[in-house]
Amino acid sequence: MKRKIITTSDGSKTIQIEDWDEQYHSKHGAVQEAYHVFIKHGLSLFDHRKISILEIGFGTGLNALITLKEAQKLNLEVAYTGVEAFPVTKEEVAQLDYIKELGAESLTAEFEQMHNSPWERPISLTEKFSLQKQQKDFMEIEDSNSYDLVYFDAFGARVQPELWTEVLFQKMYDALSLNGVLVTYAAKGSVRRAMLSVGFKVERLPGPPGKREMLRATKTASEQGKG
Length: 227
What we know:
The protein has 7 helices and 11 strands. By secondary structure, the protein is of the alpha/beta class. The protein has a single domain (29-89, 100-218), classed as Rossmann fold (3-Layer(aba) Sandwich). The strands form 2 sheets. It has an 8-stranded mixed β-sheet, sandwiched between helices. The longest helix is centred in the N-terminal third of the chain and has 12 residues, at 62-73. It is globular and about 40 Å long.
């Protein structure tokens, strides 16, 4: 499918799939959305500890780069797994210019390594941040009790409804450790009901620019095993 680079409302760029009229990040602000959904309501729940993160939709690497940047402030040691079926090209990454947008020039080498590193092999980007990229369909995920935090950043239900069903959320529930958290920009009632049906405790939270709400789901002790 044809892809092009577009500028979002906060001045940061993202990739648009023209056939779907769908973007990798919010057209209302790619960087703002990433910080609001995945950092403010996800990563910031953890500090001064070691955590494992699973990203559903590694895509441009924006969420991973921001997490690397913010984990240093939170004194976190992070093992980051990014799953992506259709990797973006190095040319597309260069056009997005996220290092400059984030003022993260000190992480230029690490961001380049994120995209240049081989798939399926863990690498250490810093002493406290490791990355493993996995090129596969989300439905192939079979992890169990492995992650503290899931960034659920798949394409929207309008274009890929199969990614927002009980089947995939059961996989996410199983992949999370007890008290693990999943955050996503989505807020549809059908998505919330799918999360609840597999055992998650679900919160509606204020959404990023352009969205009224978002969802955060937790695998709690009282809910464990319902899936």
